[in-house]
């Protein structure tokens, strides 16, 4: 059952990164667009994300619930030492969610739209950066684990674990990845003649991802970050990264051919490989502290809990996934038939 | 400077108070929506379609606000109470994971419903609305079951400070889950029913779109009134349950200091926790014994029989309890009046009738929040009743007070924004042609 739970943990992490990531990315793409393109993007984003964005963001709840139920030690370290960036993520999620809904459901269209727009765009950028910082913090090797936390200064215990160059680089990397995912998604959703906007964005995002990734790794290697050293030593991780980089070729080919499904598939696969590389290089020691690594699978909840959770997840999965799939599918098909029908008017 | 523990408690209280309002509306309004939708399908009267579409916007806005504040809460449990979650997380994980599933179903159904107009088969489209409502109520029940565990910890053996032999199913089906979940579900229907009815009653009172708002009022108030009328039965079950499991909470609710047989029920009164007296109260002899144990002569333990450091804040719990019961009784009476009005149609043309319901609008939610204060403050000083103290669960990170201020600022702005958006919805609704 532990493997079922682990599967759902990684499955929801992956889906959150891809679906939630594309969702955040949409705001980032909008932020870095000219005024005219912003309007187009706003409409496209609403069409694409509208029916599914709530579902996209539930993955993080599933993720966090699995963590606290099955891996309480891991969860405890995270919420104690990374309290501040997690709080910022939460505020970002809150403001972004309400801004998204307000700007589409407000009965009156007037200048307040500008306020919703900037709230949406800015929180779309800040939230993934801090999500990345949280992940970076867990692997940065800056967390101190002691019996008595009061022996540490406030800075050592609650700031340094996340406020360090490496973690911040990981944060920026994740935000760039979101923008990449979203650009590829939006290419397929935009109307003829507007595709080039997103093709250009996807190209820029790819370069940014690559450059930030390179800087992060060089910095990590030079300043002796354990995670980076192990990553570079792990053949599996290197293979994942290499394949992910090579996939850029078919991805661009499919994008230029206008093949929506395959270009999305390749982009999703790339992100999956990057995530896999990050996990595999250190698994199961997914927290790296100053005192050494903490294993995910050795610090788990009692077996009875894992069993019940595994069964709940299997049942939940069989109920929800077909519904979700159907939701994605039916609106995709309908959308082609009725492009401009706004259901709320 | 506020102590860390107090700041953490205030932040938790504040976010819960906020979340509960949105969660309840998001949970109950879909039912109003599907009733109106049903009537549209049945009668094809345009007014029901307009109403359904306007309510669905309300559902969407409240669902999202409830969802994001719920996401924040799922993290806050750990951020503020890491020691609690480290031990309790695995034990009460089951209701939370099922709640995650129910919530997911709700989000998927909402996607279908909001975007399915003229696209899905009519009956299936309507049915997705029903699923929104049912899964919302399921979510609510499951979360309350987790809270029930804090009041009635079960499903594990507590040996030398360790939680052993964990049985998550038994933890979920703890002795408090049913009474609490029933009470809360009815409360959600009462509060939302009266609030929504009150808003539409105000529109009728101001003579705007009388037909539309009267129809809306009737749908909402029917749910609210029925729930208000059923609530005393559930309240009685809860009281008997608490008398058995958490006698100190019951004593605090009643500000009952001395252990006695044939204990009287106090209504009103000013509590003085120093002198252990309640002044200016109305007494009903033997009633407390009867309500708690179905026996006028039963012994009810008083606060003086419990150690000082195991007692909650008595005045706060007592006043909150009085507020809840007082409002509950009032809403029940007004609910009965509504059903009488169905026979006496001329009441509907009397503006005072509508004004009465306008005045009732906020009361359900005040009672609901008061009820949660009774449950939560009444459990103190424990976070897990008789197992873990709240002060031992709080985060070691100092300066929570700043996080508390940030949350206050953000949530206050959010509340104002949502209220303002709702006013705009109503304004646009009144300008529409139907």
UniProtKB/TrEMBL annotation, chain A:
Its main location: membrane. This is Cytochrome d ubiquinol oxidase subunit II. The lineage of its organism: Bacteria, Pseudomonadati, Bacteroidota, Flavobacteriia, Flavobacteriales. GO terms for biological process: aerobic electron transport chain. GO terms for molecular function: electron transfer activity; oxidoreductase activity, acting on diphenols and related substances as donors, oxygen as acceptor. It is found in: Cell membrane. Keywords: Cell membrane, Membrane, Transmembrane, Transmembrane helix. The chain crosses the membrane at residues 6-32, 53-74, 80-102, 122-145, 165-187, 199-222, 234-252, 264-284, 304-328.
